Each structure stands twice: as structure tokens, then as C-alpha cells.
Amino acid sequence: MRALAIALVLLPSVPRAAPVGGTVTGRLAVVQDGKRIATPADLPAYVYLVELPPQRRKAHPGDSATARIIQRGEQFDPEIRVVSVGTTVVFPNDDFKEHNVFSPTAADQFDLGRYNHGPGRSHKFDDPGDIDVYCDIHKNMRATVKVVDSAWIAPVKDGAFTLTGVPPGSYKVVGWARDSSEAWSDPITVLAGAATMLADELHPRIRKTPTTHTRKDGSPYPPY
Predict the structure, then answer these.
(1) Which of these three, 128, 148, 168, is where a domain ends?
(2) Confidence (pLDDT) at 184
(3) First-to-last CA distance in the chain?
(4) How far is the CA of 109 from the CAs of 33, 92, 146, in angstroms?
(5) Residue 106 gets which letter from DSSP?
(6) In what order do the strands lie in the sheet with 80-84?
(7) Fewer CB within 10 Å: N-end or C-end of the chain?
(8) Which contiguous run of DSSP H or E holds residue 123?
(9) pTM assigned to the model
(10) What is the pLDDT of residue 20?
(11) Among 182, 119, 123, which Cα is nearest to 148's?
């Protein structure tokens, strides 16, 4: 019996296989003024997953994530970022002139101040929402940071999207484009190793937004 016990102790443990994720696919088309339009390069669209029921977490899905939006040629590049809640976004200045990064959006107001060429400054996005980002010096600089409470995000390419490695469970798929409302799918069930296709195309609708904005103190931009 003692020899058997020793043999059992010495047997190597077999690691459990990690759960195999599923795949979610579907199509999306933006709607503007009641018309279905394609998703051109200057109007990128994205999808993300919402767990059902919504989960309470001690940590945010993006707490260890970092993204970049570069200030280059008096523009933000890219002009749209979709990130998980908790993500830190760095704003390097690639121009040899001063820039500023600020947001007047009520959900997450911040001001990184003015700074010149270099690695830039950063801001951690801890709250979901569509966060408009501007430069207090150059009125044509605008970016949007879409912050979502999800770890599963994918771009829409040629009207189609694919989300991979999704843990088995129940979800809704949410479609979005800049200045649009969100389009929510019906609930779906993701199975391990299986592909799930949305039955209906998602149609986020573009909302009319102001074409101009003010500086961070509310004053108009001077001509330059």
C-alpha cells in the first residue's frame, strides 16, 4: 500500500484544458437620414459584446491595457478609439509645436494641459461613454474615445465583423459608429468552439451633432 501511495504522488498532474471560445459574426450598416449607407474609412464602425446578465467586477476589463492617440499634423491619429473600461490612453505629441488634450464631456472631463513634442501625457478612462477629445489650441483637432464595459471589441470591415475567443455564455452585440446611437442585437448564446451568426443586420443611426466647439474655457478659437 505504501508503494502504491508513493506512485500516486509521483504521477504527473494533467493540466485542465482551457475552455474553448466561440466565434460571433454578423453584419452592420450605418443609417443616416433614414438611408442605409456603407461604412467608409472616414466613418469606421465597431461592435462589442455585453454579457447577460451584466456582471459586477472588482476589476475593469481594461485595467492593464494601454492605447495611443498621436497628435500629428494638427490632427489626432486615429480620430476614433474604442477601448475597454479602465484603459489608459497615451497622447504623444509628434508635432514640433504645442498641443493640448482636453475633454468637456460630462461623463469624463479632463485636461492634460499644454505640452510640446515628446512621449506625451495619458489619461485613464474609468467610465463608459462617448468621450469627445479636443485641442485647446487647434480647433480642427477632434477625437472620440468610445469606452465600453467589455473585453470583446472588433472593427467592422466591408460591413462585416467577427469576434473570436468569446467564452461560452449569453450576450448582446452592440454596434456603434462615431456620432451614432448604439444598435443592440437580440440575445445570443455562444457555445464552446462554435460559430454564432446574428440573424439581423445592426443599424446604428447617425445623430446630428454641432459642427463647431469652443475652447475649454468656453471662448471661441482665435483665427490662425
Answers:
(1) 148
(2) 98
(3) 89
(4) 30, 19, 14
(5) G
(6) 80-84, 142-148, 129-134, 99-103, 110-115
(7) N
(8) strand 118-125
(9) 0.88
(10) 80
(11) 182
Domain containing 90 equals 61-148
In degrees and rounded to multiples of 5, residue 95 shows phi and psi of -95, 155
CA 151, CA 50: separation in Å to the nearest integer? Answer: 9
Give yes or no: residues 156 and 45 share one domain. Answer: yes
Give the pLDDT confidence score for residue 57 in this predicted structure: 78
In this prediction, residue 55 carries a pLDDT of 78
CA nearest to 168, candidates 18, 63, 47? 18
103 and 214 Cβ atoms separated by less than 8 Å: no
Same domain, residue pair 219 and 157: yes
Any idea what the CATH number is for the domain that residue 75 is in? 2.60.40.420
Instruction: Walk along the chain (224 residues) in steps of 10 and give the mean pLDDT of each run.
Output: 44 55 96 82 88 86 96 97 98 97 96 97 97 96 97 95 97 96 97 96 88 90 83
Q: pLDDT value at position 217?
A: 94
| 89 & 200 share domain | no
Please say whether the beta carbons of 81 and 141 come within 8 A. Answer: no
Instruction: Give the whole-angstrom CA distance, residue 90 versus residue 65.
Output: 11
Q: What is Dmax (Cα atoms) for the chain?
A: 91
